[in-house]
Amino acid sequence: MTATLFTVAGVNRRTGPVELRERLYVEDEAVPALLDRLQAAGLAEAMVLCTCDRVEIWGVGSAPQLGEAAFDVLAESAGLDPRALLPQRFLETGEAALRHAFAVASSLDSEVIGEPQVLGQVKAAHRLARDAGRVGPVLEPILQAAYQAAKRVRTETAIGQRPVSLAAAACQLARDVQGDLSRCRALLIGAGDMGEFLMQQLLSTGLGDAMVVARTARRAESLARRLGCHYALLEELPDRLAEADIVVACQGEGRYMLSADMVEGALRRRRRRPVFLVDLAVPGDIEPAVNRLDDAFLYDLDELEQVALQGRAGREAEAGAAWAILEAELAGFRQRQAEREAVPALVALRAGFEAARQAVLAELPPDDPARPALDRATQLLVNRLLHRPMAELRRMAVTGPGAAEEQAAAESLLRRLFPDVPVDEMPGDTPDDTKDEE
């Protein structure tokens, strides 16, 4: 039986710049065709996860070099040469891929830890793939286990409160600077998840108007549609900046999108009406020298945290607790998965012994008065003989490094000792198949 491997392949904020992620971005309507191409490349099940932080394929299959195949399909769909992107790709398989999926769903791999949108984005990608018929018996349990980990992280730690408190702090500071938000216009630079969340919070608290500025019309229009506002392209930023009372920057290109000179020019055009700026990017999008300008009030993530939270130690403790939960959920999932994989050998072993027992009973005369007692006695004997081997097979399936190799060696030995037992051909079990009766 060929092993099925879980793989994550793509580009994320750690490996590639925002320009590349935007180029690779896959709109919802293009996902089914991409999933078809992934299936042809050997991914029996797959989904496409696109956020501001990442464009990734989560898939399973048994083809050699599965991750490379997934990345090639993704790159080629954007008209890019996969070979030129090798230094910028993210590729994990097996255990590392599972941990990554759990961390993403739990918002522990986000630029702003605990951001509330990412779990919804994973679920939306899941729905698209499921509707296209590309989620099956391997990927579905992985995603459900990741959701369970995310639920525990949110309910058992305060990690999810951080983005909410950051947004609340930003909204309060905006009111302090501008007063009545209903008379204000906000400008969102970039399509980052945290920026979108903050803009949603501003709109919900009475913001009068909003505009999104992004590098591509596709991304800008998509985000503006979700927020219910207007959009423009980055080249229009200097003009749009002068119209904004509130600026939220989350482009994250690694260079300053707004210089002190740009903001000073905007302030002159605004006749020195104050502007409140929030820089959510890491590294920052707004030149720190903006803070020295009269009538410009700039806050970055650290400063928002100082307003919203009390001390770094508490945040680190929450992150540590969240990762502990994630590791526990991952260990539990691995154990359940290993037990399921061990079941065919257990079922086959019992079936082979039962067939031998029935063959012995068939040699007795049908009307032999001792037959019922012998039937029960041989059944008990088989159960006693199988108890230790089956317990050991289960143990091998769930214990530490090298367990898979140990289990494979044990199954190979079973084939040699009991050549009539179809270890490789038995289907999955039923609950009664794996009970060790005494």
Automatic annotation (TrEMBL):
<feature type="active site" description="Nucleophile">
    <location>
        <position position="52"/>
    </location>
</feature>
<feature type="compositionally biased region" description="Acidic residues">
    <location>
        <begin position="422"/>
        <end position="438"/>
    </location>
</feature>
<comment type="subunit">
    <text>Homodimer.</text>
</comment>
<feature type="binding site">
    <location>
        <begin position="115"/>
        <end position="117"/>
    </location>
    <ligand>
        <name>substrate</name>
    </ligand>
</feature>
<dbReference type="InterPro" id="IPR015895">
    <property type="entry name" value="4pyrrol_synth_GluRdtase_N"/>
</dbReference>
<dbReference type="InterPro" id="IPR000343">
    <property type="entry name" value="4pyrrol_synth_GluRdtase"/>
</dbReference>
<dbReference type="InterPro" id="IPR006151">
    <property type="entry name" value="Shikm_DH/Glu-tRNA_Rdtase"/>
</dbReference>
<keyword id="KW-0560">Oxidoreductase</keyword>
<dbReference type="InterPro" id="IPR036453">
    <property type="entry name" value="GluRdtase_dimer_dom_sf"/>
</dbReference>
<dbReference type="GO" id="GO:0019353">
    <property type="term" value="P:protoporphyrinogen IX biosynthetic process from glutamate"/>
</dbReference>
<feature type="binding site">
    <location>
        <position position="121"/>
    </location>
    <ligand>
        <name>substrate</name>
    </ligand>
</feature>
<dbReference type="Pfam" id="PF00745">
    <property type="entry name" value="GlutR_dimer"/>
</dbReference>
<comment type="pathway">
    <text>Porphyrin-containing compound metabolism; protoporphyrin-IX biosynthesis; 5-aminolevulinate from L-glutamyl-tRNA(Glu): step 1/2.</text>
</comment>
<dbReference type="InterPro" id="IPR036343">
    <property type="entry name" value="GluRdtase_N_sf"/>
</dbReference>
<feature type="region of interest" description="Disordered">
    <location>
        <begin position="416"/>
        <end position="438"/>
    </location>
</feature>
<dbReference type="InterPro" id="IPR036291">
    <property type="entry name" value="NAD(P)-bd_dom_sf"/>
</dbReference>
<feature type="domain" description="Tetrapyrrole biosynthesis glutamyl-tRNA reductase dimerisation">
    <location>
        <begin position="322"/>
        <end position="418"/>
    </location>
</feature>
<keyword id="KW-0521">NADP</keyword>
<protein>
    <recommendedName>
        <fullName>Glutamyl-tRNA reductase</fullName>
        <ecNumber>1.2.1.70</ecNumber>
    </recommendedName>
</protein>
<feature type="domain" description="Glutamyl-tRNA reductase N-terminal">
    <location>
        <begin position="10"/>
        <end position="157"/>
    </location>
</feature>
<comment type="function">
    <text>Catalyzes the NADPH-dependent reduction of glutamyl-tRNA(Glu) to glutamate 1-semialdehyde (GSA).</text>
</comment>
<dbReference type="InterPro" id="IPR018214">
    <property type="entry name" value="GluRdtase_CS"/>
</dbReference>
<feature type="binding site">
    <location>
        <begin position="51"/>
        <end position="54"/>
    </location>
    <ligand>
        <name>substrate</name>
    </ligand>
</feature>
<dbReference type="Pfam" id="PF01488">
    <property type="entry name" value="Shikimate_DH"/>
</dbReference>
<comment type="similarity">
    <text>Belongs to the glutamyl-tRNA reductase family.</text>
</comment>
<feature type="binding site">
    <location>
        <begin position="190"/>
        <end position="195"/>
    </location>
    <ligand>
        <name>NADP(+)</name>
    </ligand>
</feature>
<dbReference type="InterPro" id="IPR015896">
    <property type="entry name" value="4pyrrol_synth_GluRdtase_dimer"/>
</dbReference>
<feature type="domain" description="Quinate/shikimate 5-dehydrogenase/glutamyl-tRNA reductase">
    <location>
        <begin position="173"/>
        <end position="307"/>
    </location>
</feature>
<dbReference type="GO" id="GO:0008883">
    <property type="term" value="F:glutamyl-tRNA reductase activity"/>
</dbReference>
<feature type="binding site">
    <location>
        <position position="110"/>
    </location>
    <ligand>
        <name>substrate</name>
    </ligand>
</feature>
<keyword id="KW-0627">Porphyrin biosynthesis</keyword>
<feature type="site" description="Important for activity">
    <location>
        <position position="100"/>
    </location>
</feature>
<dbReference type="GO" id="GO:0050661">
    <property type="term" value="F:NADP binding"/>
</dbReference>
<dbReference type="Pfam" id="PF05201">
    <property type="entry name" value="GlutR_N"/>
</dbReference>
